[in-house]
Amino acid sequence: MTTQQKPDFDAIAVGAGFAGLALIHHLREAGQTIRVFDKASDVGGTWTWNRYPGAMTDSESYYYCLTFSKELLQEWSWTRRFPDWKETHDYMRFVADKCDMWRDIQLNTEIVSADYQTDTGLWLVKTGDGEAYTCKYFISGMGMISEPVIPKISGMDTFKGPLFHSSRWPREGLDYAGKRVGIIGAGATTVQMLPVMAQDAASVTVFHRTPNFIMPAMQKPMTPEWEKEIKENYDEIVARCRNHSFGMDFNTAGRTMAETPQEDVQKIFEENWKGSFRWVFETFDDLLSNPEANKAARQFIIDKMRERISDPEVADILVPDIDDYALFAKRPPLDHGYLEAYDRDNVHLVDIKDREPIVEITETGLRTTENHYEFDIIVLATGFRAYTGALEAFPIRGASGQSLREKWQDTSNCIMGVCAADFPNLFMITGPQAPFANLPTSIEQNAIWIADCIKKMESEGYDVFKPRKDAEDEWSAHVTDVHQQTLLNDGDKVHSWMMGANIEGHKPRVLIYFGGANVYYDKLRESVDAGFPELEFQKLAG
């Protein structure tokens, strides 16, 4: 790279959600120019696209946020324990407003390719409207769950009514009152969506495949007293998130089931059944590592689910069997009245795994092996290409000309989810083999690592960093080894997006680091302190 060639921007990032906003802050602090592109018409990322009825976070509001500014933490007020998509979206606009971020964001612009230029050390980034930009650092902030999976069902193009993926809910809204609605899929989205839609729709029919361990959210308003307590203790809350295995404001239980008298176990389970994922982490510290503890937790959830389902036949479809898979091998949804919704006369459940596989979509509905169901609207709640999907959706080509999609054909190897061998000066936020945790916490830790790496590059005059193949192999082997030691290895027994098993023609692979988000954050910090030994830094002649 000649010293005279100046890129259009120091950094280009794709995605104006939490990642894009965090990158703007941290890269500005590092003295870099940045342009964040997003094909959406607003900031928000997931919370711009996911506008289905009932869409809300599964992390509690007060730590599902960016923490780089103490002023922002104090100024924003949440209205309830779990905010819906609109409140979270409003919060992100608030951040963009208060931090003057709009000048670095370009909306309604789709990135269609990114190519590393070996002769200049720059990235050439092209948009759907034919524009081209160069940058020294290309960064994906596209999100780990942003690229939808569209199932291949015969006849989908023949249906006369609206048919769309739940994450692409019509921006103009959808009048489903008095309509017959079919929902394909019964994961976290449907768990949120069904209770709301059932209130106004003529009927809602859910086509269900794999039972979930469903836990209660137990929504509640944010009271002035609770808000005061939170804002007076935000430093401690942020620190707890940073040091928790799932990046959340949870305490450890300080006890294991193995050491607890059997007569006390059920009492502890019951006393802590207060909503959110807290129950998993604040009852016993060995629920995800001790097979017997995990089995006892599964049985408790099974019993709680069956208590809330009136029809035994419905319960047999919805509730997992005790030996199906380990708790957390498949992401457990949080429930806001989902199970009770099946008591409504206008809600119907179809088991497409064992009883009525789907055959085709027709002009007027959906046909299984046993019946034809008439619908006015069909919603595909069929999940996402997690971790890699957005990175593979358009060609991102590295030094050899190989795309990330081609690189990850069999395994999704990476370095800590932030870099990939053969892709110089490319950063990723929560890429493959990063932890599955409270996303704003992980996003900020990634953004800090990226900013620190860029500071080193700029202060020491480097043009290029090249991720080391041996470091990638070492991290991927470590991720696989950790996964095999956990109960979450059961994930290959279910059709889980956490293993990429929901992608047709896609071999299951370890997409998530299960060693604990706090351990992962420590490893990021160790990398910074050691001068980024995973990377090879170069100065180009010229």
Give structural notes.
This protein is of the alpha/beta class. The protein has a domain at 9-43 and 101-147 and 385-538: FAD/NAD(P)-binding domain. Helix content is 31%, strand content 16%. The chain contains 17 helices and 20 strands. The chain has helices at 18-29, 46-49, 70-75, 85-98, 188-197, 224-232, 234-242, 262-271, 278-282, 291-307, 312-318, 338-341, 389-392, 404-407, 439-459, 469-485, 517-529; strands at 9-14, 34-37, 105-106, 111-117, 122-127, 132-140, 163-165, 180-184, 203-208, 215-216, 334-335, 347-351, 358-361, 365-368, 372-374, 377-380, 396-397, 426-428, 464-467, 535-538. Strands 1, 2, 3, 4, 5, 6, 17 and 18 form an eight-stranded mixed beta sheet that branches. A five-stranded parallel beta sheet has the order 7-16-8-9-12, covered by helices on one side. Strands 13-14-15 form a three-stranded antiparallel beta sheet, with no helix packed on it. Helix 1 (18-29) packs parallel to helix 15 and helix 15 (439-459) packs parallel to helix 17 (517-529). The longest helix has 21 residues, at 439-459. The mean pLDDT is 93.
